[in-house]
Design a protein that fits this description.
This protein has a 9-stranded mixed β-sheet with strand order 9-8-7-10-6-1-4-5-11, sandwiched between helices. Helix content is 29%, strand content 25%. It is built from 6 helices and 11 strands.
Amino acid sequence: MGDIVVLIKPALNPEMIRSLPDGGVDFDNIPLKLSDIDRNAIEEANRLKEVLKGKIYSLTISTWGPISKRDKDIKMAIQEGLAKGVDEAILLEDDSITPGDQVTTASAIVSILNKFNIKPDLILAGEATIDGFSGQVAGRVAAKLNLPYISFARKIDINGNKVVIERDLEDYVEVVETSLPAVISVTREINSPKPPTLIQIRMASKKPQQIVKLSDLTGVSTQKKKLVEAKVLAVKRKQSMIEGKSLDEVADKLIEILEQEGVLKH
């Protein structure tokens, strides 16, 4: 039997970004949601659980504070994971690590695994989160645990202690083999996550959930990090007025303008 740990993150919802009058990002009022590619990681964990015959743990570190204001969104993301097949959830909930960074996050993940004596055969993560998209955390965790790390997995096959992974490298597909335990980050293409059933949603609240603080952990390297500036991308429109005596004349002028802008070509 081998356990699986899935790293999941309540990420800023990019569809709900709002700007401040000065053009800055209104972080305090952007809701969090389960990072999209983490859903693929959970789905793959459920498939591989049938092979490894162990438990699925989700491990969450909330890196957006204040926690008290984000609590509902964080808990909803964790509940979604539990409803989708996670057996037990662990959450590090502490404002002292917000805003988070990849080094602290990876350090805390390893410390949590040690605290709960979890020795997984497989650690899964999305290739990146939808807000930061650094793609660093899984690799840093693997380095700290001295485990092989395979990124951009679009297919995973496990046979005994061996795992064969197809890696999506845009221009070509690379096939690699390693042994368990290992850390793997997955792409969106690896599967199509299924929505949980009503029974799964109801059962999620009965599954074990552990909450830890930074003071409960040892060996976590924290870095003082401050977000200096973030701006919403401003798109300036030309707002050109096209006039004509007929629709054909207006259409001809529009086509001429689009050709001048390089949108249309002869």
